[in-house]
């Protein structure tokens, strides 16, 4: 291996690591707030990319029907829950909120589909449409069992992963899709050819991470999520709704996952089941951060990307094994230095 090959591998590793970092941040955020390990993050990534690909081809994406069906179900669940408490007026308002907004979003996406709007508008709609699946998933699946054990939540999350994989196959088909690149330009730095697309991935990932930092540090909703992640019972006593915190964390995580799909879509062809392996690599980065530290999760994800890139050169047949084996020493080390404390609920 000479210096030019090492630089090329490092470029690929950092680019992939930026994608894994966003997925890791989504996983850490959802787990910290709700104790749910977001196993279907890869499916949200795939759905976001395939939604953008459908818009680019002038089709109405299958996400429209998926969001519409989930919105109707979430509205019915909210109305029944409120009605059982005797809150008839709030039942109608809750049903209108959970069903009306996603249905309006789905209707707008259906109108946009065949009209070939500018790429920026298609990206925004793909992010919004896929992002709506986050709080809908929370409302339908996880909110009723929010107080269950972490193991139960994990099993349910795995079930949601399989359900979304099947729905992605049904709505998008088995054919792979690739989204248009934001830029096909490239330039040379010495012997290294740098693509503008890779730089855009790094820049937008850095901006997304900075926006998350500002959101958690400077906004009221961000501080509410942070308080819930630190102490759920204390946040509840301070008037922060755990249901709202869960829905908001799922919404942000779904948008982040869809954003990863938009970034990775021009680089590789994505199929309905492509997201799972990608999300697992983000999960390895999140585990390096202990599913608690955002900076460590981001740094661990960059490390995973670099290990994957260099492994593909030295032992391409075993690169996945090498990446996933990283989780073993990390878990062993954390089991030795971390003391478990039960949280009083």
Instruction: Give the low-confidence spans.
Output: none
Q: How many extended strands?
A: 2
Supply the number of structural domains. Answer: 1
Strand content: under 5%
What Rg, in angstroms, do the CA atoms define? 20 Å
Q: In one word, what is the shape?
A: globular
Approximate helicity band = over 70%
Cross-sheet strand order for the largest sheet: 1-2
Question: What is the terminal-to-terminal distance?
Answer: 55 Å
Query: Main β-sheet: number of strands, strand sense, barrel status?
Result: 2 strands, antiparallel
Q: By helix and strand content, what is the structural category?
A: mainly alpha
Mean of all residue-level pLDDT scores:
84
Order of helices and strands: HHHHHHEEHHHHHHHH
Keywords:
345 residues, 2 strands, single chain, 2% strand, mainly alpha, two-stranded antiparallel ribbon, 75% helix, 14 helices
């Amino acid at each position: 291996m000479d210096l030019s090959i090492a630089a090329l591998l490092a470029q690929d590793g950092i680019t992939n690591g930026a994608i894994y970092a966003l997925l890791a941040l989504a996983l850490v955020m959802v787990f910290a707030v709700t104790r749910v390990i977001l196993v279907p993050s890869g499916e949200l990534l795939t759905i976001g990319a395939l939604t953008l690909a459908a818009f680019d081809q002038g089709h109405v994406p299958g996400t429209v029907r998926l969001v519409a069906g989930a919105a109707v179900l979430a509205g019915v669940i909210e109305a029944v829950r409120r009605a059982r408490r005797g809150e008839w007026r709030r039942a109608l308002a809750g049903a209108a909120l959970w069903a009306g907004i996603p249905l309006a979003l789905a209707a707008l996406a259906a109108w946009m589909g065949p009209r070939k709007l500018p790429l920026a508008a298609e990206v925004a709609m793909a992010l919004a449409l896929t992002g709506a699946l986050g709080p809908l998933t929370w409302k339908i699946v996880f909110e009723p069992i929010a107080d269950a054990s972490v193991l139960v939540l994990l099993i349910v999350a795995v079930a949601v992963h399989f359900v979304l994989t099947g729905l992605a196959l049904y709505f998008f088909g088995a054919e792979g899709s690739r989204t248009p690149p934001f830029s096909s330009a490239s330039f040379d730095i010495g012997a290294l050819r740098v693509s503008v697309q890779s730089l855009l991935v790094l820049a937008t990932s850095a901006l997304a991470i900075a926006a998350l930092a500002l959101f958690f540090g400077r906004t009221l909703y961000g501080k509410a999520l942070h308080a819930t992640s630190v102490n759920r019972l204390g946040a509840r006593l301070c008037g922060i709704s755990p249901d709202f915190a869960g829905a908001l964390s799922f919404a942000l995580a779904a948008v982040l996952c869809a954003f990863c799909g938009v970034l990775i879509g021009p680089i590789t062809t994505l199929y309905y089941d492509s997201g799972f392996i990608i999300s697992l690599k983000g999960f390895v980065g999140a585990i390096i951060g202990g599913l608690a530290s955002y900076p460590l999760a981001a740094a661990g994800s960059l490390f995973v990307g670099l290990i994957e890139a260099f492994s593909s050169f030295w032992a391409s047949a075993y690169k996945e094994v090498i990446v996933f084996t990283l989780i073993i020493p990390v878990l062993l080390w954390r089991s030795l230095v971390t003391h478990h404390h039960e949280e009083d609920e």
